[in-house]
Amino acid sequence: MDDSQPSDLYRLTELWNESQPIVAAFVHGHVRDFHDSEDLLQEIACTVADRFRSYDAQRPFTPWALGIARFKILEYYRKQQRAFPLLEGEVADEAIEVFVDEAGELSSFRAALQRCIVRLTKRSRLLLELRYVHDMKPKSIARYLGFTPGATRTALHKIRSALSDCIDRVLAQEGRT
Q1: d(Cα 80, Cα 5) in Å, to the nearest integer?
Q2: Residue 153 belongs to what domain range?
Q3: Helix/strand/coil (H/E/C) assignment for every residue in 128-166
Q4: Cβ within 8 Å of residue 144, ≥6 positions away
Q5: Residues 132 and 62 grouped into a single domain
Q6: What pLDDT, on the 0 to 100 scale, is given for residue 96?
């Protein structure tokens, strides 16, 4: 995209910012390893940018970007020499349709989750980061923080429950379910 017009770059940025949470959810839903899925998401973003000139502006952008994500995920599994049949044929098309249909709800959920995470204590945010960003198991977290594994599992359970309740309240305040 080195010779694109500034308006093309602006439009790409605008469209990607709208679609990125949906594409990210799609990738994270299909690639379990957090770091691999983040790397894959960056690769998808680069491919979307590289191919943006071939995008037909008369069609919705998000399904187009999800189609690219689908192929990148298949490529990821092929490189690992593992089959991933869920992304083949009609099932893949249906999965993409669901992600597009649920885009508004996903955005609301993400916003509510972010608002609720900010309300947590530093300790709770650290536990979540160790578990879900660094993909540490409760036993490893316990060792790292000097807790017992049982106390770590209990704390994570309470944090997830508190987040779930908070998200429900935030969405209810916004008139969403």
Answers
A1: 38
A2: 104-173
A3: HHHHHHCCCCHHHHHHHHCCCHHHHHHHHHHHHHHHHHH
A4: 130, 136
A5: no
A6: 60
Distance separating alpha carbons of residues 17 and 23, to the nearest angstrom: 10
pTM across the whole model: 0.53
Find the CATH number of the domain harbouring 160: 1.10.10.10
Q: Give pLDDT tens digits for 75-120.
A: 898 888 765 545 555 555 565 666 666 655 666 777 788 889 889 9
pLDDT of residue 122: 93
For residue 11, the one-letter residue type is R
- What does 82-129 look like in DSSP terms, one character per residue? ---GGGSHHHHHHHHHHHHHTHHHHHHHHHHHHHHHHHS-HHHHHHHI
Q: Are 52 and 10 in contact (CB under 8 A)?
A: no
Q: How confident is the model at residue 153 (pLDDT cuts 50, 70, 90)?
A: very high
Backbone angles phi, psi at 44, to 5 degrees: -65, -45
Shared domain check, 87 and 20:
yes
Residues in the chain: 177
**What tokens appear for 151 in the block?**
């106390």
Mean pLDDT of the chain: 83
